[in-house]
Amino acid sequence: MSHSGARRADARQNVDKILGAAVACLSRNADASVSEIAQAAGVGRVTLYGHFPSREALVEAAVMRVLSEGEKVLGGLDLTGDPREALNVLIRSSWLLLAQASAVLEAALASLPPGRVQELHAKPAQRVDDLIRRGQAEGVFRTDLPADWLVSVLHHVLHGAALDVAAGQLDRADAPHFISETILAAYTRSGT
Amino acid sequence: MSHSGARRADARQNVDKILGAAVACLSRNADASVSEIAQAAGVGRVTLYGHFPSREALVEAAVMRVLSEGEKVLGGLDLTGDPREALNVLIRSSWLLLAQASAVLEAALASLPPGRVQELHAKPAQRVDDLIRRGQAEGVFRTDLPADWLVSVLHHVLHGAALDVAAGQLDRADAPHFISETILAAYTRSGT
DNA sequence: AGTAAGTCAAACAGATGTGTTCGAGTTGTG
DNA sequence: CACAACTCGAACACATCTGTTTGACTTACT
């Protein structure tokens, strides 16, 4: 097991099921146990340990999984136009994925060395970061607040919206519109 | 122990230290153990159990503590003027307290019956809720998004700012200004 | 000063989680 | 078919957390 060489088909399939379950469980509950994840994957706990040597390794693999999914979706988007429109497209097409990724990363923060998480997160986050900085440079987004803060606001509003949806306090269909309207307004200086 | 009658001075003092430590620990880590809280309070674990029959009871007491602190501060504010100015005052004077209360409530959510938390939280939250609804009614805040969502946004931005400060990614002194500027802009329809 | 109230460390029981081993059963693949 | 790869439940050791008891110690209050 855990040999680089070709593994049996069902084994590869199980690894896939486990990673999917891990992402789902960890984005719902950062403290999800290994048993819980194994059960959600329809797999025995021992089988899981056959593929991942420790919970920590599993969490890291789940992070890489959700990040690569994110890369795939974000890579298919055209974010080169008007920053406002680009941000709108970004939010409407993948807010749920971004929120899920954010939740898994937060879960990872509790069981992985803190530097490791930011290291993994750095590259994919760059896309959003660049978009916001470009919007500032083009004078479309406000510059009286630092880009880091604007990124953080987007991050936390997305995460919050996901929590609200999970708690039944927000209709999933309303979320992208609400988020987009809120963020675009927040990124423009208020007319006091 | 746990007699309604007059208790010794040092006992009351210890209860106070324990509650303070519980609020501090739980707002930093929702899963803080009883030992951790006892140690932070400078008190033995057994002593803590002498005052609170269970972890659950301790968490509930910590929630009541932070909420009553919040009531005290919010009660001393004049929020009757221009909703924008009132919200500005509210954020600048007590964003940290609000964020801490929010974190403790989130911690409580993991160990208390879900209904109980919202029940405890309901009355103090009403103040902020009312302010936002008044702002909408007076035409100062946008009405194309529901008040519940605006409240939720404030909530999550506050929480996020507290996390950023704790992570060293945001200067504590900058936070109130950033939050206030962001929220006021978000509460106004963007000039697309 | 005397007494009750309070504190505390050590040790216990029980629950839960992680990680491992064993042995038997199952299934993909050559 | 045959064998290796894989799966899986049961049980283990180890750690951590909750909650309790015991017994000795200290301290507030009258």
Task: Explain what this protein looks like in three dimensions.
The first copy, chain A, is mostly helical. The longest helix of chain A has 27 residues. In chain A, helix 1 packs across helix 4, helix 5 crosses helix 7 and helix 6 crosses helix 7. The relative contact order of chain A is 0.11. Chain A is elongated, with a radius of gyration of 19 Å. Helix content of chain A is 72%, strand content 0%. The first copy, chain A, is built from eight helices and no strands. The mean pLDDT of chain A is 93. At the A-B interface, helix 7 and helix 8 of A face helix 7 and helix 8 of B. The first copy, chain A, binds a DNA duplex (30 and 30 nucleotides) through helix 1 and helix 3.
